[in-house]
Design goal:
The complex is a heterodimer. Chain A is an all-alpha fold. Chain A has 20 helices and 2 strands. In chain A, strand 1 and strand 2 form a beta hairpin. Classes of the chains: A mainly alpha, B mainly alpha.
Chain lengths: 485, 227
């Protein structure tokens, strides 16, 4: 059952890619992409709850386990809302002839982020992550402004260089595994997990650090985050949402799986401490840049650095609360950051600028979209009653028992970010200094639907942490702590 | 730990090739002419292909012949050809703005090799087999080519040098992994193909940039996005 659903998840976007390229009609392409995203989400929604016990398919190359399926669920939700929003946003660009290509790339990008978490072979996982870079580079450069091309160049060079470290780490893990598995074996997560206790701890520590820096580049952990604000702010808004909500999680899952193996191999506290340190540093860097930010989409991008730091801290703190909180945070952040990018994209188009000093009176000009965006801003800073409050609280509670220093730092930085982030919104909403009327047509039914679809689940998840999620998170924690990723 | 055990002659042959590849990385580091980088990179790829084929022969892994063929075709011929074509179109011959003189870059590169050697000894110690020179050599070359690649990425600003820097990062991995673990050729084959895609994609981005802003290909000019 879970394999069939996974197959649907993996085939639907590919159908959209082929269809968009074949039909060459902008309207058909946007509808085809939307249909594919709906099918994908329909199949991905029940997937994490059916994925126990874990199943493998395609000669052991495909792994449907709860952790992977959870990340796929987050990615699929972002794919749906971003596809709905893209219909509104991409029409504003007046580039109808290039739309079929855009949607083909968009569906292809979604496909790569859905594929990577389900890869069972650590080497193929690396290739899948590299593939996400390849496809999304062209999406980041899609708007063809000089800044977009600059961002695309930085993105592909920095991320490829980072990922080459992850490849070296993968090779060293393979080498470490030859001790128990012989010179030829398929490097699946289970195979490594089963022999983890026989691996050489020194070699595994080195390999894990390489993998952490490598995939950490893709996750956007500071100090390897420098590509992220550029790529997120220069790509079209639906692409930014997919980059932030889907891609970053897909790279994070690799770090989590390797962490579980490294711990089992007796690598000591180094891997966990390194992950916590990178997480805390990401929060610090994000806090500094959020407070002094001017670009509206760069603000959202640095907020992604912040939240990836929070998720890294959650997995670093570990324990049922830490892992559960981090997984819950993945879902909440995926929904919330999509909402924020949608709002930012529409406002950017309405006011014709990315500069927050020229965006004024949002609430007055756009009562509905403005209200949704403002609610999202309150949610993303971790205020109740939204989902991120619960997940950040869980991670903090996990941190107090395992690493009180990092937890304290996290709390302080979250407060700084809360104040800094919302201050930008206060100015954009309640300062009417520039009373230049924005273009009303920047917001339409499609974009409002997409934003509402993000906000409602966030509110529900903030008021009610479903019991099904708790048991799912606990099972993920149990498998990870047994070194069976 | 299954460590490869080659006959003495083969071991010294592989050692020689590995050292020659490392020297070629230094050639790239010490030159400021883009054409030199490209030739050194092409030659390095040929040497690595030789290593693949040799190990395929000694370890009886026929897939490694395919890896050798792919390396020669893509990294030894196709990429240098593409780069030559771009160089002709751009009229970019050399690095114009050097952050470091080639001599200083060479010294830094040498320091990187020393660091890599120290790490390699540490790993070999931990594995309890400190006496096998091929392992230490392979690890050293692998890690130091990483460091040199990153050094090139950070001190060279011509777009072509940056793409070549990326390729050196991966050449080191190919070289080391084939000596250390001849058993994972499938992954290496896939990675070689992927690398080509990455290079072509970056050429694509580069070409688009040129279409809009004919003139420079130095990443020093890319400074609109800060903060």
């Amino acid at each position: 059952m879970s394999l069939t659903l996974a197959a649907i998840v993996l085939i639907a976007p590919l159908v959209a890619v082929v269809g968009c390229l074949a039909l060459r009609s902008p309207r058909a392409a946007e509808m085809l992409n939307l249909a594919a995203s709906l099918v994908t989400a329909g199949a991905a929604l029940p997937l994490p709850f059916l994925a126990s016990p874990a199943q493998t398919g395609m000669d052991g190359y495909l792994l449907v386990d709860r952790l992977g399926a959870w990340v796929v669920l987050c990615a699929a939700l972002v794919y749906v809302t971003a596809s709905i929003y893209a219909i509104s946003y991409m029409r504003l660009l007046d580039e109808a002839p290039r739309l079929p290509r855009f949607y083909a790339l968009f569906a292809g990008f979604a496909w790569t982020t859905l594929t990577a978490p389900l890869m069972n072979d650590a080497g193929v996982y690396w290739i899948a992550v590299e593939l996400t870079t390849l496809v999304s580079t062209f999406l980041v450069g899609f708007e063809r402004a000089a800044e977009s091309v600059e961002a695309a160049w930085k993105y592909i060079i920095l991320v490829s260089a980072g990922l080459s470290l992850a490849l070296l780490g993968t090779v060293l893990f393979y080498w470490a595994g030859t001790v128990a598995l012989g010179p030829h074996y398929q490097m699946t997560w289970q195979a490594l997990g089963q022999v983890a206790s026989h691996l050489n701890p020194t070699l595994v520590t080195l390999a894990f650090l390489l993998v952490l820096v490598g995939y950490g580049t893709k996750v956007g952990l500071a100090p390897m985050h420098t590509w992220l604000p550029d790529a997120h702010s220069e790509g079209p808004a639906p692409v930014s949402a997919l980059l932030s909500g889907a891609l970053l999680n897909a790279a994070m899952i690799g770090i989590v799986r390797y962490l579980s193996i490294a711990e089992q191999a007796g690598a000591g506290s180094v891997p966990r401490v390194a992950l916590i340190a990178l997480g805390a540093l990401s929060l610090l860097v994000a806090a500094l840049f959020i407070v002094r930010q001017r670009g509206v989409k760069r603000l959202m991008a640095y907020s992604s650095v912040e939240h990836m730091g929070v998720i890294a801290l959650g997995f670093g703190f570990g324990g049922p609360l830490g892992v559960g909180g981090a997984l819950y945070h993945m879902l909440n952040h995926a929904l919330n950051k999509s909402l924020m990018f949608f709002g930012a994209g529409s406002m950017m188009r309405a006011y014709g600028t990315k500069d927050m000093t020229e965006i004024r009176g949002v609430g007055r000009h756009f009562p509905i979209a403005g209200a949704l965006w403002l609610a999202g801003a309150v949610a993303i800073t971790g205020a109740p009653p939204f989902g991120l409050f619960l997940s950040e609280l869980a991670i903090l509670r996990a941190g107090i028992t395992s690493n009180a220093w990092a937890a304290g730092l996290m709390l302080v930085l979250l407060v700084v970010i809360f104040a800094g982030f919302l201050n930008h919104f206060r100015v954009m909403y309640f300062d009417d200094a520039l009373a230049q009327a924005p273009k009303q047509k920047a917001v339409d039914g499609w974009s409002l639907t997409a934003m509402a679809l993000c906000l409602v689940p966030l509110l529900v998840l903030g008021l009610w942490w479903p019991a099904a999620f708790s048991s799912l998170f606990h099972e993920v924690y149990a498998t990870l702590s047994r070194g069976m990723p | 730990m299954t460590l490869p055990h080659f006959p003495p002659l083969a071991a010294s042959f592989f050692g020689l090739l590995a050292i020659a590849s490392l020297l070629l990385a230094f050639v790239m580091l010490g030159s400021r002419w883009l054409r030199d980088y490209m030739y050194a990179f092409g030659l390095q790829s040929w040497l690595i292909a030789l290593i693949s084929a040799g190990i395929g022969h000694y370890e009886q892994v026929p897939e490694l012949y395919l890896v050798a063929l792919l390396t020669v075709l893509f990294r030894g011929l196709l990429l240098p050809y593409l780069i030559l074509r771009i160089l002709r179109r751009l009229h970019a011959d050399r690095e114009l703005h050097e952050i470091l003189q080639p001599a200083s870059a060479l010294v830094l590169g040498a320091a990187g090799v020393v660091l890599a050697l120290a790490v390699a000894y540490r790993i070999a110690d931990a594995l309890g087999d400190p006496g096998s020179p091929v392992i230490i050599l392979a690890l050293t070359v692998m890690l130091s080519m990483k460091l040199i690649g990153f050094l090139m990425l950070s001190i060279r600003h011509e777009a072509i040098s940056q793409i070549l820097g990326l390729m050196i990062l991966e050449n080191g991995i190919f070289l080391g992994s084939q000596i250390l673990i001849p058993g994972m050729p499938l992954l290496i084959e896939l990675v070689i193909l992927f690398d080509l895609l990455v290079a072509v994609a970056s050429f694509g981005v580069l070409a688009r940039y040129l279409m809009e802003h004919a003139g420079t290909t130095s990443s020093l000019q890319l400074r609109k996005l800060v903060g």
